[in-house]
């Protein structure tokens, strides 16, 4: 490998006396753009067969020209926490992922949405579908995939939203854009306490952890490289946040099971996380039966997590050893980069 050639199979970084090899996963992640156009939409796109005649939308048509304007707007104004993929053969489709913001129960999570531009766009707003994985994460993001935004709502839905004091901008064909929609969606995740009680806010974080597990198991197509690379970088902050949130939690067995599944998912993704098992060792069951069950989680195998494990154990062990070298036993969340850059300065100060 030529360390001076960026096109070689790997890139070598030097930190003092430590040599760190950038593997293929990290390399692909670092090359992943906030906005990109690819030839064809993925087979798992929600709206792929929604309108069979929509594939005839041409760039030269009025709708095609409007969508191109939207693309240009996104290229120039997308925040670093939103990633978008559009498609040459289906310009009426789009897929986005939003990163959960700091200081919220959704921090570190990845939330995916599919978008469809109807033929009468922008007279009518775009249609959205949220990849919920069957989880009831947020009052405005339903398990069936419905996104409840005033901007996209019918008159009846707006009345309901007003009743619950959900005030957001309405869709205006002359001024609204898909960028406004993305900001509105992002706003659903910006609340530090989306629920009125700490119990429900912790539940929101639990569900975010569940989504992390599900996204790692079934990453939406076109985002596989991003998902793998992102969670390799965020594995330690996620587990540290979990330990802080649920230290001393009374419902220990449920929390232990969730932590174990989360830990195994992140380890299988290629991050060495063994030192986080001290969290399990610090918890003792209130009864002998609970203690036996927790010992099973702590010392048991991976069979209850991996349903179709086609990965050789020795190869997985080798991957863990590669990641082990740059992880200190007392992991400091400040040392882990946020997404593709440094951690948020305000977040560091808060910690």
TrEMBL record:
InterPro entries: UBC, UBQ-conjugating_enzyme/RWD. The keyword Transferase applies. PROSITE patterns: UBC_2. The keyword Thylakoid does not apply. It comes from the Eukaryota. Residues 301-351 are annotated as: Disordered. Residues 62-236 form the UBC core domain. Transmembrane segments: none annotated. Keywords: Transferase, Ubl conjugation pathway. SMART domains: UBCc. It comes from Fraxinus pennsylvanica. The lineage of its organism: Eukaryota, Viridiplantae, Streptophyta, Embryophyta, Tracheophyta. This is UBC core domain-containing protein.
């Amino acid at each position: 490998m030529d360390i001076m050639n960026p096109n070689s199979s790997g890139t070598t970084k030097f930190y003092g006396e430590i040599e760190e090899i950038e593997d293929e996963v990290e390399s692909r992640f670092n090359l992943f753009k906030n906005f990109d156009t690819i030839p064809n939409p993925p087979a798992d796109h929600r709206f792929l067969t929604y309108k069979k005649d929509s594939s005839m939308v041409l760039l030269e048509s009025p709708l095609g020209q409007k969508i191109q304007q939207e693309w240009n707007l996104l290229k120039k104004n997308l925040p670093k926490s939103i990633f978008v993929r559009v498609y040459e053969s289906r310009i009426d489709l789009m897929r986005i992922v939003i990163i959960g913001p700091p200081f919220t129960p959704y921090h570190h999570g990845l939330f995916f949405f599919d978008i469809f531009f109807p033929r009468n766009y922008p007279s009518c707003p775009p249609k959205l579908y949220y990849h919920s994985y069957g989880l009831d994460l947020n009052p405005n993001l339903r398990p069936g995939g419905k996104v409840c935004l005033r901007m996209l709502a019918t008159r009846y839905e707006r009345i309901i939203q007003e009743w619950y004091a959900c005030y957001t901008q309405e869709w205006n064909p002359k001024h609204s854009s898909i960028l406004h929609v993305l900001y509105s969606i992002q706003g659903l995740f910006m609340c530090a306490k989306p629920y009125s009680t700490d119990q429900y806010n912790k539940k929101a974080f639990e569900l975010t952890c569940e989504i992390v597990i599900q996204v790692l198991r079934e990453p939406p197509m076109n985002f596989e490289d991003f998902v793998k690379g992102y969670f390799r970088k965020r594995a330690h902050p996620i587990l540290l946040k979990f330990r802080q949130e649920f230290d001393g939690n009374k419902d220990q067995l449920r929390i232990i099971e969730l932590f174990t599944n989360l830990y195994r998912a992140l380890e299988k993704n290629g991050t060495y996380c063994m030192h986080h098992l001290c969290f399990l060792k610090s918890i003792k069951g209130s009864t002998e039966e609970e203690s036996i069950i927790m010992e099973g989680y702590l010392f048991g195998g991976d069979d209850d997590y991996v349903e179709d494990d086609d990965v050789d154990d020795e190869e997985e062990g080798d991957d863990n050893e590669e990641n082990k070298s740059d992880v200190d036993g007392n992991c400091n969340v400040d040392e882990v980069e946020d997404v593709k850059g440094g951690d948020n300065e305000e977040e560091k100060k808060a910690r």
